[in-house]
Hints:
By secondary structure, the chain is an alpha/beta fold. The protein folds into 2 domains: 6-175 and 338-353, 3-Layer(aba) Sandwich (Rossmann fold); 190-335, 3-Layer(aba) Sandwich (Rossmann fold). 38% of the residues lie in helices and 14% in strands. It contains 14 helices and 13 strands. The radius of gyration is 21 Å and the shape is globular. The termini are close together. The relative contact order is 0.13.
Amino acid sequence: MSMVLRICLVASSRFPVAEPFAGGLEAHTASLARALRRRGHDVSLFAAPGSDPDLDVHELPLEPFTSSSAARADVAAPPETWMREHHAYLGLMLDLAREGRRRFDVVHNNSLHHLPVAMSSSLEIPVVTTLHTPPVPWLESAVRYADPSAAFVAVSEFTSRSWAHAVPSSVVLNGIDAAAWPAGPGGERAIWSGRLVPEKAPHVAIDAALQAGVPIDLAGPVLDPDYAREHVWPRLGPDVRYLGHLHQADLAVAVGRARVAVVTPEWDEPYGLVAAEAMSCGTPVAALRRGALPEVVDERTGRLAEPGSTAALAEAIADAAGLDRSAVRRRAVEQFALDRMVADYERVYAHAIGRPVAA
């Protein structure tokens, strides 16, 4: 694209966009911001306090909020955290309504909050929203108040179909920085990475790997201590290790040294970034057939198992482990190129602001 854009990139306020990343959304936001800047665009990232200052971060004002005793007496009062996030995005959107046109050409809403969508008609600049989740009540209800010119992008065909009843969306598959996820040598152990929470179900990965006779490592933040205490920690031992919450470079090394990556969502995964990251390292994937994972993992790069069967996932682990690592890596670099993702977003931006796209 020949034109340089001033982009307001709005991140989730829940976790900082900083290493070690809390999840795929934060990792995706960081790589998108860096890639857009490398291509010459002026990117201002509005994100949670503690985000990487190298990303030109403007902190969302998550100021302490304490309800009055009268307000707390309301039995339907929302949690204080919800109120802080609501006020942070309200403040951002009001600022953009006042002076956004002077500062930016386009707003890219990469958050999960409803206000950037619901208040898009108050801005004099176009708003592009990436749909990172299946429909949730607050976000779905905000769509009906979105500006008619607002653009929506889904991270997979599955997610686009999930939203079709509420809003049409184009599809831009997430991209992977192949240099940041280099080819690894493989090894004897499987790996599972992600947030240690029930919907990611690392305990399912453990049980299936052990049934397949493959030791397994886990990596990621513990966001549900009760779940980990009940379902993960009792399973640890010589064949099941917890590596901790790793920075990206260390996680890439661990994934590259794994025999197979196991992905076990207990919900309909909107994309499946951990699968794409593993494939970039040449590590084949054994995953549950949920959500968008069939769009990410094919017969060349892994195996899919039907949910609910430990035996089926164990068989997928054994089969995937025998795949050609170099072929897995080639497919990932071809399918999930970061430059392809950024070029797709540039076309979305250009269409939103009514400018022609350079050939």
